[in-house]
Amino acid sequence: MAEQKTKGKKSKTKRQKNLARGNAIAGYLFISPLIIGFLLFLAYPLAQSFYMSFCKVSPVAGQGFEFVWSGLTHYKYIFTVDPDYTRLLLAELQKMALYVPSILIFSFFMSLLLNQEFKGRTFVRAVYFLPVILSSGVMVGLETNNSLLSGMQDLIKEDTNGTSITATLESILLQGENGNSFFELIIRVVDEVYNIAISSGIQIIIFLSGLQTISPSMYEAAKIEGCTGWESFWKITFPMISSLILVNIIYTIVDFFTKSDSEFMEMINKTLLTDFNYGRVSAMSWVYFAIIIVILGIVSLIISKRVYYYD
Known about the structure:
Layout: H1 2-52, E1 55-60, E2 64-69, H2 73-80, H3 85-114, H4 121-128, H5 130-134, H6 137-144, H7 147-160, H8 165-173, H9 180-191, H10 193-198, H11 201-211, H12 216-224, H13 229-257, H14 263-273, H15 278-304
Antiparallel strand pairs: 1-2
Helix pairs in contact: 2-15, 3-11, 3-13, 11-13, 13-15, 14-15
């Protein structure tokens, strides 16, 4: 009898190992196109860019580029001589600290609303997926070059004589000495609500897909046990969706830092296209890349410890 139990345990352990090995192989096969594409098309340009950050790069007619080793010259320049690099980098980090939580809170709140049962839910979901379309290159170009929109903005300014409700509320809320920093933060978020909305489409879809995987029976059992809606949210919804919070945080940080319309990215593009200083641009980009990697590592380390994983 004991021998049969031992054999049963061994066979069960073997099946579990085979299943884990099969899942691992399937995972590697799934990401293999990305790995192959990175090795074929990105590995060498990245290595060359890193080497360029330590060199003075000069174009040579008919021969490509000439590399002359200069050590840490470019890195010293951007941190000690360049008046804009550090300032714009810090401003970008501060903006990220404001944008990322705002986008996550907004997208999570909207996904909770869109997951409810109501008439016209499909239409409303389609409307809230429009930010993904609006944030595409074509729509951004139409938005920035739209003479009708700019004309309407000028007309509104003329009609309001330079005043607005938000400006009046801002002046009232910022009077006095206490709580000014909090109200300034709220006002900044409200002023950026359009940008927050058009940056939340993917996050809403991810959260919504996660919410739909939660079994309704869990909420029914909790309701039978006397749990309120608030308790069900913190005991069921939030833990079950926590893994997707980590995914959305990483996606939002990467999406924010890779936007080409920020002042920081415009400065890098200007250095490349106007000054043709390839070595300095490489140094700027690698410092920026290293900071992004550090931020992602810290955030992943902190958040992953509080993520609830379930089978």
